[in-house]
Amino acid sequence: MAKRLLTAAIGVPLGILIIWLGSITPNVLAAVTDILSVIAVFEVLSAAKYTKYKCITVLCLIFSGLLPLFFCYDILRLYAVPVAFLFLVLMFSFTLMRHKEIKFDELGFMAMFTICIPLAIATLAFFGFQWREHGTFLVVYTLVTAWIADGGAYFTGTFFGKHKLCPEISPKKTWEGFFGGLVTTVLFAVLLGFGYEWFDKLTTGENHFTVNIWLLVAMAVVSTFLGLLGDLIASLIKRQCDIKDFGNILPGHGGIMDRFDSVLLVAPFIYLVCKVIFPITDIIL
What pLDDT is attached to residue 143? Predict the structure, then answer.
């Protein structure tokens, strides 16, 4: 617990600084999410013991570093398909060269996470590029809904948890913890909505918008389920790989993947809601 609190004491101010700089220029968030993506992919490949395939590992890390940039910058988006095609050609070529060692299920595992993790994490940066005015709020809302649900579930489950949720995958998770995380997330979604309006009035002297609290609450409920799903998938990978954490870069928390597993499905979901289902103008009026 002491390590978790110490890491949070350092990480929270650093995260606030990064988000603040990202509000000035989305390039900061693009660079940070790019670094996080590469580290997370490396952690997953290391957990599965696939880093022994050095050429493919290097290829996956390079591609995971390039992929977020393609979707953040219009000038690079034109090259996304050719580079993705080259990535697949090289992956298959290395596999044929070492066909006696590499199995196709291993190749599929490496390719899937090399693509999925960077796309999910890069969504945080894409908020800033897509909606410059309210991008920072969406980044904060995404991280808070994912991490508050996780934290609320942890503390509620520790003190009140009796009924196991998925004992074979994550023995410490309980239904009491899940509902505690759900309630906590909804409360913080409401606070964030009103807080964003208050901050606007505080800094400008008047309200330029109102936040649709009901939509924030609805997204928070779905995000709690998606965050749990991402967490359980990560736990399943760790259990099958026989490891406790994906890394130790964050003392008390594990690796980047341990901290962002609940964000991997939440971030794309919130982006799709704001882009396709309910435009950002329906959420922030």
Answer: 92
